[in-house]
Amino acid sequence: MASTNNNPPLIHQAIALYGGTFDPIHYGHLRPVEALSGLIGLKEVIWLPNNIPPHRPQPEASSQQRLAMVRLALQPFSAFKVDTRELEKPTPSYTIETLKAFRQEIGEKQPLAFIIGQDSLLSIDTWHKWEELLDVCHLLVCARPGYQTTFTSPQMQTWLEQHQTKQQADIHCLPAGKIFLADTPLYNISATDIRARHKAGLDCHDLLPESVENYIKQHQLYR
Question: Domain for residue 195, yes or no?
Fold first, then answer.
C-alpha cells in the first residue's frame, strides 16, 4: 500500500552543533536545546566550548574548568556530545571554519545544523564570513527573551525570508541552506547573572544543574 505522507523521505537525521563559552553552562543553554532537539528530531547535538571567543570578553573560568562543567551538565543526555576542537585552538574560533571542518568530516550529503539564539541571528551579519554559513549548514534559531523577531535591515530581512522554512523535514532532507525559527521555551538566565550571584554568595541551584553548581563551589569559581 502506497504511503499517504506527502513529506519527502528523510535522507539522514540532522546533526546539530551548538557553541558557546559556557562560563558556566546553565539551564538557559540546556533546556531550549533539549526542546529544540525533540522538536526537530536531531540525531545528536555536539556542544562546542570556545577557547578564545572573537566577539565577547574572555571567560573567567579556565578552558578545562568550563569543559568539565559542560561534561557534567550533559551526562543525563545520551544525544548530547562534546567536541573540544575549539578549546584546543590557541587562536580565536570562527564558526564558519569549525563548520567547514565538520562538513569535510561528515561528507556533503549529511544534514548539518548550527544552533543559535535569536540575538545571534539578528547580529549574524557581523560574523566572520557569515554569507558562507548557509552553504555549509542550516541555522536553527532558539527564541530569546526580550529580542525582536525581525531584522531592522530590509536586506537582511529579505535574506531571512528567502531561506526560512517552517518544515522540520527540510532540515533532514537537505544538507544545508535553511533557517528554522524554533518555538522553544524562554529562559531569562545568563552566565553573567550566575557569576554575579556567586560573587554575592547566593545559591544558583534553580539556574543550573546541581552537578555544575557543586563543581563551582568545589573549585571556588566566580568569587
Answer: no
Grid cell of 108 as nine digits: 556533503
User: Does any domain span residue 222?
Assistant: no
Count of structural domains, the chain:
1
Instruction: Convert 145-158 to b/e letters by CB count within 10 Å (16 or more is b).
Output: eeeeeebeeeebee
Which residue, 102, 99, 114, is CA-closest to 40? 114
Q: Using one digit for the tens of pLDDT, what is the confidence trace for 101-146?
A: 999 999 999 999 999 999 899 999 999 999 999 999 999 999 877 7
Amino acid at position 133, single letter: L
Euclidean distance between CA atoms 90 and 27, whole angstroms? 28
Element (DSSP H or E) covering residue 109: none
In a domain, 176, yes or no: yes
30-83 pLDDT per residue, tens: 999 999 999 999 999 999 999 866 666 778 999 999 999 999 999 999 999 999
Whether the Cβ atoms of residue 180 and residue 164 lie closer than 8 Å to each other = yes
Range of the structural domain that residue 110 is part of = 13-187
Residue 17's CATH number: 3.40.50.620
- Determine, yes or no, domain membership for 5: no
Report the C-alpha gap between 34 and 73 in whole angstroms.
12
Using DSSP, state whether 47 is helix, strand or coil. Answer: strand
